[in-house]
From TrEMBL:
Pfam families in the cross-refs: Creatinase_N, Creatinase_N_2, Peptidase_M24, Peptidase_M24_C
GO CC term (a single one): cytoplasm
Domain Creatinase N-terminal: from-to ranges: 21-152
Keywords: Aminopeptidase, Hydrolase, Metal-binding, Protease
Gene3D superfamilies in the cross-refs: Creatinase/methionine aminopeptidase superfamily (3.90.230.10), Creatinase/prolidase N-terminal domain (3.40.350.10)
Protein name per UniProt: X-Pro aminopeptidase
Organism in which the protein naturally occurs: Tardiphaga robiniae
Amino acid sequence: MFEAHFQTFEEPESGVALTARLAAFREELLRRKLTGFVIPRADQQQNEYVPPSDERLAWLTGFTGSAGMAVVLLQEAAVFVDGRYTLQAAKQVDVNAWSIQSLVEPPPETWLADHLKPEDRLGFDPWLHTSAAAERLAAACAKAGAELVAVDSNPLDSVWAERPAPPLGAVSIHPLNYAGVSEADKLAQIRGEMERLRVDALVLSDSHAVAWTFNIRGADVSHTPLPLSYALVPKHGRPQIFIDHRKLSNSTRNHLEVSADVQEPDALTSALANLAASGASIALDNATAADALSRLITAAGGKPVRGADPVALLKAVKNPVEIKGTQTAHRRDAVALARFLAWIDREAPKGKLTEIDTVEALETFRRQTGALKDVSFPTIAGTGPNGAIVHYRVTRKTNRRIALGDLLLIDSGAQYEDGTTDVTRTIAIGEPTDEMRDRFTRVLRGHIAIARAAFPDGTTGAQLDTLARQFLWHAGLDFAHGTGHGVGSYLSVHEGPARISKLGTTPLKRGMILSNEPGYYKTDAFGIRIENLELVVEAHIEGAEQPMNEFETLTLAPIDRRLINTHRISKRELKWINDYHARVRREVMPLLDDEATRVWLEAATEPLTQPQ
C-alpha cells in the first residue's frame, strides 16, 4: 500500500567491520610522515547534507549523524558528537577502536591538547575546515608543542578505493512566481551590503547563497535542492558562477548567463588569485568558506575579509511571494498530515504497524498531493525507547513494532517548490501514563510560550530560548538541542543565521521562518517533541512604545489532546490550544475529500475544557 521513494532503511556499515579501514588509514599517515589527522563531517562548503563522495567520517567510523568529527592519532582515535547523537554514536562506532567524546563542551581541541605530544604533526585538509576551525586546531597543536600541517591532498581519499564520483544533479530555474525577486535585484541588494562592508569582491562559498542569488535549484545532495557551486561577485562588473557544466541544460545556462559568466569549478582558484593579485579586499563567509580560500587569497597578495555572509541574512528574510508560497505549502502539507494522523489512530492500536510503516505511509500521503519534490530530511519515527534518540533514523535492523502504551514521535518535512515544511507530533498509542502526560504538558506549555511570545524588534533567539524550557526546568528536566532553527524557501530545512537557542545571537527579523520544537527524552523509555514552524511578523500592541514582533504559526496539524493534562495548563494556554485547533479545522477541513479523515479531524480538534 505504502512505499518510500526518497528514504531508505538499510543499515549503514558500522562497528568492527570498519576497523581494517582505520588500520589502512594509519599506514597512509605514516607514509606521509603525519602522526595524526582530523576528519570533519563536512564537504568544501560545510553543507548539512553532503554528497556520498564527501561522507568521509561515515566511511571511516560508521557514524552517520549530520554533525561530528574524528581525530586519528597513531595510538588513539576519537569520534566527537553533540548531545543529539550520543546514543546513536555508541551504537554505530566500534568503541574498542574509538572513544566517543563531546563535540561541544569540552570541544575536540581540548582533547587534542591533552593527547598530542611535542613534535607531533597533525594533518588537516584546508578545503574541509573554515579558517576559524583551522585556527582552533593550530592553537591546540601549539599548546601541545605539535605542528598543524595543511595537506595538499586528503590521505583518507587515498585509502578509500571505492569512493563515489562527485554528483551531477541537473540544475533547474526557480521561477519568479516562487522566488519573488529577480537576480538583478538580488545582486543590487548584495552590492549594497558589499558597499557597507567596504570590500572589492564577495565569494559565495555557500551553495544555498548561489542558489538564492541566481534563482536556481539543483539535485546534488539528499533532501535539499542544492546545486553545488561557488560564485564570485565583484564590486563592479559581472559575477562569475563556478559550476560543473554537465549539470546545465541550454535553458539553465541561458538563465545564468543573463546575470553572470559561467565557469567550470576548477576556474575558481585562478579567478580568486588574479583578483587577489591586485591587492583586492575579498569577503569570505566565516561559516562556510574553506580555509584554503583564505590561504589562496593571502598568498596571491589579496586581503581576505572574514565575516558573516551578507546573503545569509538577505535569504533568511522571506519576501511576500515566498511567504505566500510557504503558507500554501503548509496548507497542502496539512492535508497529508491529517490523513496520516487519522490513519495512525485507526491502525496503530491493532499492534501490527512498525516504524518503517509510518515513514512509508507519511511519504506516500505527501506524494499524493502531487507536488512533493522530496522529503526535507529523513523522517524520524521513533516508538517507545527509540523516540528518546533525538535524531533517530529507523533501519530494517532497528525497526520496532508500535505497541499499546507507546509514544510515537514522528518528525518529518517536505520540499515543495513553493515552500519547505518541518513538523513533529508525538502520538499516544493507547492509554498514556501520568508521567507521559506530565512531560508532554510541560513541553507543550513551553511550545505555547514561544508561539505566544511578543518581543521587541532586535530580540535574538537566545533571549527567547528560556521560554521553551521553563516548565521543564521547574521539574529539574531539560532537552539537549536548540528550541528552533531557521527554515529556507525550497532550500535547506535548517537555515541560518537565526535560531532559537542559547547560541542564537542573530536578531529575529520580520519575514524569518523558524521552528518551535521543545522536547523531552527519557532514555530507554520514550521521547516527546512538538514542532510547528513560525513566521516572524509585526505585533500590533496598543500603547506600545517601540516596534514589536510576534510569531504567526504556519504548521496546521492537531496536537494530541489525549496527552494534555488540563489540570496543569492556564486558561490562556487552554485558549491558545483551542484557538489553534479551531484554525486547523477551519483551514484544513475544506481541503479534505475523504470522509474518514474529516470525521477524525473533527474529533481531534474538539475544544478542550478544564475540570471545574
